[in-house]
Prior knowledge:
Elements: H1 10-14, H2 19-40, E1 49-53, H3 59-69, E2 74-78, E3 81-82, E4 85-86, H4 91-101, H5 105-123, E5 127-128, H6 149-165, E6 168-172, H7 174-177, H8 187-195, E7 199-203, H9 216-226, E8 230-236, E9 248-254, H10 255-264
Parallel strand pairs: 1-2, 2-5, 5-6, 6-7
Antiparallel strand pairs: 3-4, 8-9
Amino acid sequence: MPREEQDLYPEEVKENITPAILEKLFDDYVTEAIRLQAKFSPHLKILVGMEVDWIRPSSEHFIEKLLIKYPFDLFIGSIHHVHTRPIDYDHQMYAQARGIAGGTDERIFEDYFDTQYDMLKALHPPIVGHFDVIRLKADEPDGSLMRWDGVWHRILRNLDFIAGYGGVLELNSAALRKGMSEPYPKAEVCQAFKARGGGFTLSDDCHGIGQVGTNYDELLRFVEEVGIEEIVYFELGSTTRDSRFPNIDVATFRAVELVKTWFSSR
């Protein structure tokens, strides 16, 4: 989604990208997505959405304007910044955010999940993106999140809130592509959300066609190991659980059938 000048990434600044350019790119994306949605219907059901980027409290107004302006079918709510610093871009920027948080991974993890909670309360995103992406640049990215009471308390609070309004967690395979041992979120988080009746949907978080379906073998084995029984998917339809998106059905299929179909076709 478009961002303000103060939030441009280093390579964007280097390439003289401006907020106006980002806005034009975003508008072009939505226009093309809607064109393709119409062109391939009804043979291919394409949903048009966006991943929102909550950077500071004022992000709420910016995001709400986008949701009003464009006819999205859904959106993913994500956190990529803590104390307005990117936390999944590089180690240097992560270290800056960690320093502001108090100098430890424990403190910045607490602040990350507090920031996520603010986003959840304000937006009620249908899908919550890479729930624990804060792990990526940490000193022990594969360490248990339960080792810190304050962090785990915040995680359970956020999961309670998501389950309460019917949100879905994204099972994101990009963590595997980036060298981590588990997808986002970790098994312990998935088990806690599953115990709350929460649902999961699949994502490769691809940033190009070469990453489509990347590490889905490992992701689906993870689904089996964690004991996730159903996978949620979204489609055009007549019923809805979210009044903001009146033409979107939320459906499920059995994970065991998905796993069987996936591996039998490999």
